[in-house]
Specification:
single chain, alpha/beta, 6 strands, 20% strand
Length: 172
C-alpha cells in the first residue's frame, strides 16, 4: 500500500489581547507585583477601580517577565480596571517564602496581598483604593473569599471560583 502525505494547514490565530504589564521593581519584602491598565489609559484619564488578580498559593507563580502570563489580566484591565497581580510568601520564590506560610497560610498570604496592593497604589496613582475587588480560582478563590470577609475595609467585592473548601483535598 502507498503512503499518502499532505500539508496540514495551521488555523492558529494570534491572541487578540496584548498585555502591557508594569513590573514593580524594589517592592516591599521582595513581593513580585504586576500592574496592568486598560489599553491606551493615561494618567489624565483619571483613577480606575482596582481588581486584585492573585493566585497567591503554593506551587504557582503569576508574576513573571513573560507576556503570556498576563493575557487574562489584561483582558480584565481592558474592561475598565487597574489590575494588580501580587506574588508573595507562599508562592515559589526564596525557600523561606514557602516556609513562612506553615500553619498560617491565610494570614500571611492575605497580608502580602494587601501590602502589594498598597505598594502598587503608591507607584501608580491611577488606582482608586476606595473601589477594590479581588478575584481568584482554586487557592486564589479561597483567598478572594477570605479577603472580602477578613479585610472588608480593603476589599469591597470578591469573585471566588472553585475555592479550596477542604484542605485535605487541596491539590488532589
Amino acid at each position: 500500500t502507498a503512503t499518502r502525505s499532505g500539508v496540514i494547514e495551521s488555523l492558529a490565530q494570534l491572541p487578540t489581547v496584548q498585555p502591557s504589564v508594569s513590573l514593580l521593581p524594589g517592592a516591599p519584602d521582595d513581593l513580585r507585583i504586576g500592574i496592568l491598565l486598560p489599553t491606551g489609559h493615561t494618567a489624565e484619564d483619571g483613577q480606575l477601580p482596582v481588581l486584585l488578580d492573585p493566585y497567591g498559593g503554593p506551587h504557582f507563580q503569576s508574576v513573571m517577565a513573560t507576556q503570556g502570563a498576563f493575557r487574562e489580566s489584561q483582558w480584565w484591565a481592558d474592561q475598565g480596571f487597574a489590575v494588580v497581580v501580587v506574588d508573595g510568601r507562599g508562592t515559589p520564590g526564596p525557600p523561606s517564602w514557602e516556609r513562612a506560610i506553615r500553619l498560617q497560610v491565610a494570614s500571611v498570604v492575605l497580608a502580602d496581598q494587601v501590602a502589594g496592593l498598597h505598594a502598587a497604589a503608591d507607584a501608580c496613582p491611577q488606582l482608586d483604593l476606595t473601589r477594590v475587588a479581588i478575584r481568584g480560582w482554586s487557592f486564589g478563590g479561597y483567598l478572594a473569599a477570605l479577603a472580602v470577609l477578613d479585610r472588608p475595609e480593603v476589599f469591597h467585592a470578591a469573585i471566588a471560583g472553585a475555592p479550596v473548601t477542604d484542605w485535605e483535598l487541596y491539590d488532589t
